[in-house]
Write a structure and sequence with these properties.
Blueprint lengths: L1 E7 L4 H8 L3 E9 L6 E8 L5 H9 L4 E8 L5 E8 L3 H4 L7 E7 L2 E8 L2 H13 L4 E8 L11 H13 L10 H8 L3 H25 L1
Antiparallel strand pairs: 1-7, 1-8, 2-3, 3-5, 4-5, 6-7
Length: 214
């Protein structure tokens, strides 16, 4: 398999809006919507001028954004938000979300880590993106063994755990609970608890199994 790091000159409109307001933002994790070009993007923001409510209001007003919610993060002056979009610039450019490992968005574009089955699949991605008018700048290509994560966490589970970490769910005492996470993800506290328990079970089972093999 090929692990590729590539960069494209595209930007999230809502991230551009945040920077225009003097805030810095970091894309933590995107989860593509089913049968849609939109995504659910978990983002960390640092802002000295805007509150969580103001961030939610201003990002929600950006064209293409369906909904945005922000809460205070663990670090002083930081916020954690979930931004749901109708259509994502990355999807329009031809980035295959089923091959996406990570994405880092900055003012100068988006850097992707992608995992392809073979060189032909990688070439198809570059050709498709070019045909759509997007240039792919390849920074690194590595031949790697097939990756089969032992934990098998879903992207949604990983996104929820990342949000819990950055919002202070694991702090002692807690800075955020299932109620805040439920508001962030637009679901119920009970549903959040169930997803977290399932994810924790996978992580614990994987850790214990690895320890027993040594």
């Amino acid at each position: 398999m090929l692990r590729v790091r590539a960069r494209m000159l595209i930007a999230c409109p809502w991230a551009q809006r945040l920077r225009a307001l003097g805030s810095s933002c970091e894309l933590v994790m995107c989860v593509p919507k089913v049968k849609s070009l939109g995504v659910s993007a978990l983002v960390k923001v640092k802002s000295a001028a805007l509150s969580a409510g103001e961030l939610s209001e201003k990002v929600s007003a950006v064209p293409g954004v369906e909904h945005a919610v922000f809460f205070e993060g663990v670090e002083a002056g930081s916020y954690v938000g979930l931004v749901r979009t109708k259509a994502c610039a990355c999807a329009r450019s031809g980035v295959p979300f089923n091959r996406l490992l990570t994405a880092k968005e900055t003012a100068g574009g988006v850097t992707f880590e992608l995992l392809f089955q073979d060189p032909n699949e990688f070439s198809d991605f570059v050709r498709e993106s070019n045909a759509r008018g997007y240039s792919v700048s390849v920074e690194e290509v590595k031949q790697v063994a097939a990756e089969q994560p032992a934990t098998q966490l879903t992207k949604t589970q990983m996104q929820l755990l990342a949000a819990a970490l950055h919002m202070g769910f694991y702090e002692v005492p807690k800075k955020a609970g299932t109620r805040e996470l439920a508001e962030l993800f637009g679901t119920s506290p009970r549903a959040i608890s169930e997803v977290i328990r399932r994810a924790h079970k996978k992580l614990v089972s994987s850790t214990i199994s690895a320890a027993e093999r040594t």
